[in-house]
Amino acid sequence: MARKTKTSSSRRPTPKGAPAARARRRSVTEARPRRRSVSELEASTNAARYSAEQTRGGSAGRVHPDTGESSRAVHPQDTARFARPGRKLKTQDELPSDLQSVRVGDERKKLKKKRRKSKLPSPNMRLLKLLIAFLLLIAASLSVYNSGLFTVTQVEVVGARHITAEEMTALAQVPVDTTLLRLDKEPITTRVKENPWVKTVEVKRKFPHTLILDITERTMAAVVSLPSIKRSEQIDWALSDDNVWLQRIPAADSDEGKTLASALFEDASQCIHIEVSDKSVAPVVGAECSDASVHAALHILTGLTTSLKDRVAYLKAPSADSISIVLDNEVEVVFGNDRNIRDKERIALKLMEEHKDTLTSVNVRTVDKPTWH
Questions:
Q1: Domain residues for 211?
Q2: What confidence score (pLDDT) does residue 52 get?
Q3: Residues 6+ apart with CB under 8 A from 322
Q4: In the β-sheet with 62-63, what is the strand arrangement from edge to edge?
Q5: 203 and 232: one domain?
Q6: Is residue 303 located within the same domain as residue 261?
Q7: Whether residue 277 is found in the same domain as residue 167
Q8: Confidence grade of residue 65 (pLDDT, cut at 50, 70, 90)
Q9: Rg of the chain, C-alpha, whole Å
Q10: CB neighbours of 222 closer than 8 A, spacing ≥ 6?
């Protein structure tokens, strides 16, 4: 028995001839060429260029012969990245030339430059920051300068042999409230140089609380023995190499001598002594020696060039024209004045060689008429 199929009453039957009409419309539509949009034109154009780039240089792109940077063809999908919003290209000729190829190195440089510009502050802002930093620095410097920081609590003496550190500290007279920042060097230098032993002095700072006095002393050149009121005694004075009276030299075992630096007596024992019999010579500490007999004796002493200089024990200088040298063997060589020192020295050595066993004195005051006995 055949089963009857039920049909919905809501479904309307298809009119005759409808499939044929739809087929005709479809064939007409497919036969008519469709107009392509601008985006499709761009996509097809770039696809062709991309294929050409792939064919010529491969997917890796080309390398620039000068810069060494690689370039790649622009894929059609990258077109939207370069297109301006809202712009419609009417024809293919209006397609931008920068869509053909882009160097990766240039894109990176542009990106880095843009980032740097975005991070840098404006010129006015930089100037304002520098001005504020400068004003803060000045304010901090003034505050520290006027404060009690770095107060001088210790004075260190360097280079002094004949002067004690206590004497130099007392002579410097550094004010109690002096700081290393507000230190005035000139008055301290002037006071320290009042001591005749001080030739030069350099005042230095040693943070946080030390003041250094770097001293260069004068060198003792000779000891000048002067007659005293008592004929049996002599007064010794130290004379520097630049002709300045340094100080009186007392006996080392005296009460005054015990308070002085030991270097004074050590140098005095190694220097040449000059005996001056002129009572008019009056040394002053720190003053320049102006006695002609002392000058003549020092000139003869420094003018000797042979072995005779090493044998000098002391000099006698009763006057500038009567200078005598006493040697280590007690032989006295009378030079007279301080002229023709080389000739007098040569003649004295010759006579001492000829009469070395019997010679007690040589007079070369007159070069062409020497005498001896």
A1: 154-217
A2: 61
A3: 316, 334, 336
A4: 62-63, 70-73, 101-103
A5: no
A6: yes
A7: no
A8: very low
A9: 55
A10: 239, 271, 272, 273, 274, 297, 298, 301
pTM of the model: 0.62
Residue in the structure block whose two tokens are 């032989």: 331
Interatomic CA distance for residues 194 and 167, integer angstroms: 12
Residue type for 50, please? Answer: Y
- The secondary structure of the chain in percent helix, strand, coil, rounded to multiples of 5, reads 40, 20, 40
Distance CA 50, CA 41 (A): 14
Query: What are the pLDDT digits (tens) for 119-157?
Result: 656 677 788 888 888 888 888 877 777 777 889 999 999
Task: Please give the torsion angle defined by the CA atoms of residues 203, 206, 211 and 214, in that order, rounded to the nearest 10 degrees.
Answer: -40
Q: Which residues pair with 299 in a beta bridge?
A: none
The pair of structure tokens assigned to 268 is: 């005095």
Strands 70-73 and 62-63, sheet pairing: antiparallel
186-218: pLDDT as tens digits: 999 999 999 999 999 999 999 999 999 999 999
Q: 272-276 and 245-249 as β-strands: parallel, antiparallel, unpaired? A: unpaired
Residues 252 and 353 in one domain: yes
